Amino acid sequence: MTGGDADADGAQVRRLLLHGARRVVSRCRDFTAEALADWGWIPAGSEAGEERVEDVLLLVSEVVTNACLHAGGPEEFVLRHERGRLRVEVSDASPEPPRPRGPRSPALPGGHGLMVLDRLAGAWGYEARGPGAVGKVVWLEISLLPGRTPEPPPAGRL
Fold first, then answer.
1. Phi and psi for 14 in degrees, rounded to 5?
2. 7: pLDDT confidence band, cut at 50, 70 and 90?
3. Partner of 12 for a Cys bridge, out of 63, 81, 86, 99, CB 3.0 to 4.6 A?
4. Where in this protein does the record put region Disordered (predicted)?
């Protein structure tokens, strides 16, 4: 794991290396929850804010689980936060893009992850990893509740 830094655009960035890690879904959810708390996304006593955080954690679970099931497991998990927007990136070694399954009953378990991304994320997609790297990065973006700015982080935290 690496801590938080700022990128060239001034966004706050946190990275979690996952090569061969166990319990990656829960590790990524915990990592995200801690970052969201540090970045002021978890408001005290706000049901709507808590629901938004639950949406983010569900989206994290979906993209990380998809990497586990369909791409040999995630290699890196990255959070980028800037001006009330969060970008989640999951890197894996598979060049195969995410593909929705054919039509299926909502009552059947599994196969609904991309539908969840479509409904809850502001945007999502994938791109090839950088030069010399094999695989792809699946990303999603989500914003804080409209009309609300993040609370400033406590002193000494990113």
1. -130, 135
2. low
3. 81
4. 90-110
Give the side-chain half-sphere CA count within 13 A for 25: 12
Proportion of the chain in helix, strand, coil states, percent, rounded to 5: 30, 25, 45
The number of folded domains in the chain is 1
Encoded tokens for 88: 């989640």
> Which of the pair, 110 or 137, is modelled with greater confidence?
137
Whether the Cβ atoms of residue 15 and residue 77 lie closer than 8 Å to each other: yes
Q: What's the start-to-end Cα distance of the chain, in Å?
A: 15
Range of the domain at 65: 8-94
In a domain, 146, yes or no: no
Please state, in angstroms and as integers, the Cα–Cα distance from residue 44 to each residue in 47, 83, 119, following that order: 9, 20, 26
Q: How confident is the model at residue 135 (pLDDT cuts 50, 70, 90)?
A: very high
Mean pLDDT for the chain overall: 82
**What span, in angstroms and rounded, lies between the C-alpha atoms of 90 and 61?**
11
DSSP assignment letter at 130: S
